[in-house]
Amino acid sequence: MFKLFSKIKGRFNPTENRRRLVVLYIIFVVIPIILSDSLILTSIYNTEQTVRRHHLENEANAIHYTFFNQVDQAAKLGSAIYSSLYVDRFIHDNYESGLDYYNSYRQFFDDTLLHLVTSQSGMDFKIYTDNDTIINGAEFQNIDKAKGTDWYNYVMNSGLKKGLYFDTKIGPNKSILRTIYLFQRLNYYEYNSPNVMLIEIDYAQFVEELENLNYEFKAYICDDDYILMSNGKYSNVAKDYTSVDNLHDISYTQNFEAYGKELQLKIVGAPTSFWYIIKNRWYQLCFMILINIALPLFVSDLMHTTYKNKLKEQETVVARKNAELLALHSQINPHFLFNSLESIRMHSLLKQENETAKMVEHLAKLQRQYTEWQQDNIYIETELDFVKAYLNLQKYRFGDRLSFEIDVADECRELLIPKLTLVTFVENAVVHGIESKTTPGWIFVRISRDESKVTIEIEDTGTGIPEEEAEELLSKMRDANIDMLKEKGRVGIVNACLRLKMITDNNVTFDLDSELGAGTLVQICIPVDKLEGVN
């Protein structure tokens, strides 16, 4: 390139000079602008795609959780009846007369409070039994009334003790009403017993819970053939189920299994075309167009002026402009993400969706730490801000299933620790402890010190770790090295342990105590002097 400029000296034919200027203009202006525009547009598209996918995943996870929350109420009732010796005795007793049965029937509901439980949860139930001394009616029916029905055939053929069944029934005025059943085989005390409990879940209330989530896009819960329910159309309780073939433009699909029923959650209507996404980022597109117009004009004028004075000086200016374009591109990726998150947060605030705005703020705080890495060691107090942001995001996902408590001694807050290490251990506790647990769980973060050492504890009340897996994980933590980062598995924990070993000259100890069904405790002990001034 420098040889090219050194040859452009002396007097040349004006036409030849213009031709060379055009070539230089194309090389140093047009081509860099095209490349930069392509990279910027690609970055905008990929980032928006990622944001949209996360949005769809969050919506799917919320609907999935709501679905199981509704079904679990019926499942818990079925489990209670299944293992109740009192219920088993009631449906197997021989009653000498109708009056004898009626008195026992009234005493049964007085003792069990089943009517109160089912009325509060919007459920209804029937128990089908082969006991001929029970008067057929109300909550107790003869098993012969169930035989031959579609749901009973499904129960018998599925081999399941507990399962879901979507069906329709004839309502008032001979209208069709959609129903959701959860069946429970009552064979806990007698394996071959044909007795079965059928719990009817209020379909309308179920759909109302989905609609109250108030998500932008419509989601549909389907089996292989039909749309079973949704937060939009095709969820009319007074119509038969609609074929799944009516769904088009499916943007996201999540498969899940619910008590033996294979289901799919399909989200429809989230445009993903390139130009649609770019159009939504019009302000960035306008800025890019202004740059495309202004920069060539500026560079063209600069090239013309410098060509009259010094051709070599022109080379320097054009090279500098090219470097500026490349620098602009190198900076736009992370800042675009933060600007995008800020736009989403402000939009949520305008719509008074304050909780969503708060979650976006937490996500932006975490994401900035992942992209801005000027220093590896930060104050423990700053690291705890990331921990709180992460746990608040997870609480948005799990709701009341997740609680946390952070207890840090004041004298520990100004000590330095490798960035994102505590977050890594907390994330591991959430993902491997709380996520698979259906009941509420706690995360505890405790940091204390004495004269010689700092003790960090991360504890969860999750599902716990099998003994062999716990021993293997503890071994990896204690022997963490670079080669382990190439392996699959919990490399995040290995990474955090390795960096703790590096800043402490290997003067750090790790301990792990876990019990299945009770939870897991990770303890880290570090000499105090290793955390003072490690920057």
Record field, number of beta strands? 17
* CATH fold-level topology of the largest domain: Heat Shock Protein 90
Strand content: 15-25%
**Shape verdict:** flat
Helical proportion? 40-55%
Q: Estimate nothing, just give the exact number of structural domains.
A: 3
User: What is the CATH C-level name of the largest domain?
Assistant: Alpha Beta
According to CATH, the homologous superfamily of the largest domain is: Histidine kinase-like ATPase, C-terminal domain
Quickly count the helices. 15
Structure description:
The structure is a single chain. This protein is α+β, with helices and mostly antiparallel strands. It folds into three domains: 2-40 and 274-346, no CATH class; 74-205, Beta-Lactamase, CATH 3.30.450; 374-531, Heat Shock Protein 90. It has 15 helices and 17 strands. It has helices at residues 2-7, 14-82, 85-92, 98-112, 114-121, 150-158, 203-211, 274-280, 282-309, 311-350, 354-371, 380-398, 421-434, 467-478, 491-503, and strands at 123-129, 140-142, 162-170, 176-185, 196-201, 218-222, 226-230, 242-243, 250-258, 261-268, 377-379, 402-408, 416-418, 441-449, 453-460, 509-515, 519-527. The strands form four sheets. Strands 2-1-5-4-3 form a five-stranded mixed beta sheet, with helices on both faces. Strands 8-7-6-10-9 form a five-stranded antiparallel beta sheet. A five-stranded mixed beta sheet has the order 12-14-15-17-16. The longest helix has 69 residues, at 14-82. It is flat.
SSE inventory with pairings:
Blueprint: H1 2-7, H2 14-82, H3 85-92, H4 98-112, H5 114-121, E1 123-129, E2 140-142, H6 150-158, E3 162-170, E4 176-185, E5 196-201, H7 203-211, E6 218-222, E7 226-230, E8 242-243, E9 250-258, E10 261-268, H8 274-280, H9 282-309, H10 311-350, H11 354-371, E11 377-379, H12 380-398, E12 402-408, E13 416-418, H13 421-434, E14 441-449, E15 453-460, H14 467-478, H15 491-503, E16 509-515, E17 519-527
Parallel strand pairs: 1-2, 12-14
Antiparallel strand pairs: 1-5, 3-4, 4-5, 6-7, 6-10, 7-8, 9-10, 11-13, 14-15, 15-17, 16-17
